[in-house]
Structures are given as structure tokens and as C-alpha cells.
Structures
1.
Amino acid sequence: MTGQIQSLLNQNKRILAVLIDPDKATPDHLEQLLTPENQARIDFLLVGGSVLTSGNIDDTLTEIQKLSKLPTVLFPGSPDQISSKADAILLLSLISGRNADLLIGKHVESSLRLKQSGLEILPTGYILVDGGSATTVSYISGTQPIPSIKTGLAAVTALAGEQLGLRVTYIDAGSGANQPIPVDMIKQVRSHVTGPIIVGGGVRTSEKAKAAWDAGANVVVIGNKLEEDPEFLKNLGKC
């Protein structure tokens, strides 16, 4: 049965997600971010990070739910970031890398906990792309990102993930990326897969967000830019 988030992703519309890092999600920051005006523009919230040093997933979700009824989707960097307080989870397989732990190992560790959680599970092929700067996810995962000029490699990697049964493709330049995913790469991936595509990392202007949607992304993820400027969404149109 298709769940709420998968149904949303399957719609023929431009979807905006906001990534919230529990390490940075103070109550004051969340209040500034989740204003009624911003919430009206957001379709769902991603919650998680490559590594947590001080934040807590359960506490962050509790604070979010005091302020918002937006769907919450876990974007976990480790099994420790699983929480039944969320609505769904992107069950990430890092298909651009060759780290067996992130292809299947951590999933085995998490399987019973996930089954008991009641979360909507979204099997997701996660593709890390070079965004022009070193990222935490590359360091923590011990994998090299796909070079941004290797659009064909990204496309066949996404295709392989879909052929393996992964229902969502997430192409990410990583938190703090200098450059977003190239438009040509998004177009190539779109031409190879039929399922929803999420694009994140380096989206710091409304023009870059629009370019990603125009190229075939179903979902654009905004993260660091909103930490710098909580009012950024006011000028972000989807058309």
C-alpha cells in the first residue's frame, strides 16, 4: 500500500522540502523557520544529519510538532536517528559508494526496529555528487562523490538503484556544497528513471531551485540557506 509521503512524491507537482539538522535545531531557530508563511510553502520536513554531536532526534521532532503539522521524514545518518515520532523515513542506500555498511549493513541492524516503528519506509537510492567542497557525508561514509561532470555515471547509478527496487532517487551535493547538482545531471537521471527524484545541496537561490525543478526534480531540498536566512522561502516560487 502506498503511504502518505510516497503518494505526495508521486504527484506531478513541484515539491519543496526543508532539511532540519537536530544539532542546529534550537527552539528559537525552529520558531524563526516554521513561521505560518514558511509552512504554507513547505510540503514536508526532512530531519536528520550525517552525524549528530549534540542534537537529539526525538527532542527535535517534539519541538517541530509543537509548531507545525507538516509531515516529518527522517533523513538518517545512522540507525540511532530512527524515531517513531516521525511520519516516514528515507531508507537510504548509498549507491554511489562502495561502502557495504551503507549499502546493506546498517539496514540489517535497523530492520527489526524499523518494522516495529510504524514509520512509512521509502527505499531510496542515495547518490552523492561533488558540490565543489568537502562534505561531512563524504567523510563519514568513507566514499568519494561522483564528479559533477560525470552525468552519465550518475544516471546509470540511479537506474541500477531503481532496477534493484529502490523507489526514490536522492541526488545530493551535500550540506554546505558550493554548487548544486548540475542541471544536465538531473536531466540525465530523469531520462533514466521513472520514480521521484529528490535534489539537495547547494541550492541557495530561487533560480537554482527553479532550474532543478525544470530539469526534472520532483523535490528540491533547502537546508543551509535557511539556517542563514529564515526568510529565504518568501521569494522562492515553484512556477
2.
Amino acid sequence: MLPGKDTRAGLIAPLALAALVTVAGCGRQEAPDLVNGKRLFAGKGTCGSCHTLARANTKGTVGPNLDDAFATDKRDGLGQSSIEGLVIDQIAYPRRGGTMPAGLVKGQNARDVAAYVAYAAARAGQDTGALATAAQPAKGPPVAEKAGTLTIAADPTGALAYVTDKASAKAGTAKFVMPNKSPIQHNIALKGPVTGAGPIVGSGGTSTFTASLKPGTYEFYCQVPGHEAAGMKGTLTVK
């Protein structure tokens, strides 16, 4: 989506002009939809496959890290509208010899993606509200307790999610097991008729705890600040 760092300096001035032209024409366009932009950015086979952008939970390494690429620009006072123009230009006219095809997204979708990148790049913290769940991965099938053990893994891609958002168990003692192959720290915790929590673990670790379950509906979730709000949670039904 972006040129290499060695070529960006020579492009800033003309691309900033393109940004101003884009902004000047905004009255004739729909306002950008950041939720759609994030969804498109993080979708399979699109921008996030090649670029790292922390707020979109993407870890691509083929193209530039967008947080790093725009950190200096934002510190130097380049506004979101100008960055949006830069990104729109790069979507339409990628660097020659690169792997990104021209026009990977087009029209209003391209503007939505550019607006989200301009908003999210090098911005501390995590998305909230509708943006927090805009790019959640597809959930796997429900998980059922087996021989007293309920295994619910963290999503291995780095998304703030478990591999499923539904689970079931029988009343009685159950061991909760959360393998974490994600590059981000997570744990698994429970709230409802009975509570419990495993330790927060890094990549390669396993968060576990044991609880005496009563019939009812529970929520399993991650206690790392912001993760539950971003969608790392699910429903456990105990009968």
C-alpha cells in the first residue's frame, strides 16, 4: 500500500497535493465509513495480508508496517486528511515492481480503507465500539466439554478472539484450558453463576483453571484490558 521508505520523501509533496484535491472533492462523495474500511483492510487476501497495522490486528510483513510508516508523519503534524490522500494514491498507483496490484479496492471502498488507515496508523490503544468488532475472524464451531475438560484456544492469528464464541458443558467440575499460539498475551476467565480465571500467558503458554459449574449461562472472556470489549468473549451453556 505504501512505497518504500527510500522513495517516500520524494513523493510527499505531490501526494499531499493529491490529498488536498481529494479532500476538496469530499462534498461530492459519501463520508468515509471507518467500519467498512477496517473490514476491507483486514479481510482475507487484502491489505492486512501484507501490512502490519496494530489496530486492525494484522501482522503482514510483505509490505511496510503502516504504524511505523506514518508515525513520523503524524508526529510532524501531517493530518488525517492528508494521510488519507497518500493512501488513496498508493492504492490506485502502487510502487512499480511491488507485489500490490493496482486498484485492490476501488471507489468509495478505497476511500473507506484509506480513511481507516489514516485514523488507525500509529494511534495508541485499541479500537472501541463498532470498530472493535469490525474485523473479527470467522468463528469456528461450538466447543463441548470432553471428560471434564473444556479447551478453548486463543485465535492464533493475533486477532482479539477465541477460536469459537460458543461452548457447552455439563454441571460439575470442569477444567478450562486455553492454549495461546497468538503473538499477544491472553487468558481465559469465566463469569456467571460461578467465576474463575486462568493466568495471563504469552505466545506458547496455556491459561488454565478449574471451576465447579452450576447449570446456567456464562460468559468466557479475556481479562487483558480492552480484549473483552474488542470481542474476545463467548457464551458457555451449562446443563
3.
Amino acid sequence: MPLLVTSAAGVNGDGYGALLAFDRDGRPLGVFSSDPRIADPRGLAVAQREQLLFLNSGSDRVLALDRHGKVLRDTGPIPRLNPGGGTFGPDGRYYIGLRSARTIMALSVTLDDAGERMLPAGIVPFPRGFAFNSDGVLFLSSGIGPNGEGENTVVAFARGQNLKASRLVSDPELSPLDLVVAPNGNIVVSSEHPFGLADAATSLREYRAADGDLIRVFSTGAAGEFRQPRGLRFGPDGVLYCVARDEVMAFDFASGRCLGAVVRYPRLNGQALAFFP
């Protein structure tokens, strides 16, 4: 089962702007799909029942690919979509973060509808990763924008009360980049604090979903540089993976121990990862 990673083009053009594949030993397998509709790719998620990979493209569209990298479904260009991360919700629809509109949109898995905005535009000043738990609660992380607006936190939306946000996390050392729900029901957030600084402290931070209390902090120690941590994903082996600049790091979630870099790849500029098929 290959590991797929989206590599952004980068503000200075120093990334690959492609969907890259690696084998289980971290060896590069090349570009997974050369379809020209994949540009500056962002979020990834696997539709297990259909065995399709959903990809958010910087060309303002969402694509669904088969295990050979062929695009089978395409929303077509959606003006000003600017999609970020993506995940499947409890209703089976594909949810994407809208960077410019600062909200979340849901699309049918057929990708043939106009989509539905699940939250008002600007619901948080600077949205980053989001995920649903088994009860349908939506957790949305929010950071501080380029102009200093916003705050570093995680908010929660109870199912059926999507317009009513509850601030969950208050952690002065958090600057979130992505968020995932762990097998134990807690939430894990990748953090770079202060965001964007060369000497920022990077970590993965686990919070109790019920009250937002910080449970523990995962760090790599000397196992890797762990710069610019972004996308999080639990693998089929139960290991927690985080894509970062030039590498993908693995963590034993039970013990919190860093297992080291499973991928080292210069200029990776990783955004999201998935195991597929």
C-alpha cells in the first residue's frame, strides 16, 4: 500500500506541486498521477467503499482518482474555491476547507453537485485542519492570520447545531496546522509556534475531546528536523504519520514515541498524506 503525499508548489516555487508516491520503505515511486488538473495539490482523503482517492487541487477543483492515478470524477473549476484540507463526514459526503471563504463545504461523492456550505463564511478568522468524531462533532482548528487577526485554538460544533461554536482548546503554545481524531477519541493537532518563524517550536499535541485539556505533547527529539509540520493521518498499522518539510515522520501513538522519518525527500513541502489503495 503506497503512501501518497501532496507537495505544494510553494510560495517561491520551491516545491513540486504534485502528488507523489512512496513505498512502505520510504523509497520514492515518482508522481502518482500526471493529470494536468492536479496543480498545487492540498488535501487528500480515501473513500474506502469506492476505493477512490479524493484530492483538492489548487486549480479550484476537486478530483477523484482510481488506484492507477486516473481521474474518474471532477467537479470542474469552481470559481474562488481555493480548497485546503479534506475529509469524509458522518453523512458520507466529502468535506473541504475553503481557505478564502474561511468556511467548510460538503460535496457528494459523485462530485456532480454545487456543494453546500456547512458553516457561515468567516466562521473563524484563519481556518486550518478539521475532522469529525464518531458522534458527528466537528472539530475545527484556527490560527492567526498574516495580519495578526484570529487566535490559536480549536472550536467544536455539535451535530445538528452547526452554527453554534464552542471554543474547546486554550493552549498558549499551540499554533495549529492540521487536526485528526485519534482512535481513543481525543484530537491530535500539528503545531508550529510561532507560525512561520524559522526557530518555531514544532510538535504534535493531543487534547481531550470532552474539555480540550492538553494530554501530552509528541516531539521528534533528534529523530528528524520536523520543520513545518502539516497533514496528519493514522495509517492502517495504527501509527500516526505527519508530513513535514522534506520528510514524513511516524509516531507510536500508544507510547508517544517518535519512530523516525519514514520518508526523507528534499523540497517535499508536504501538505497532506494518505495510504491508497
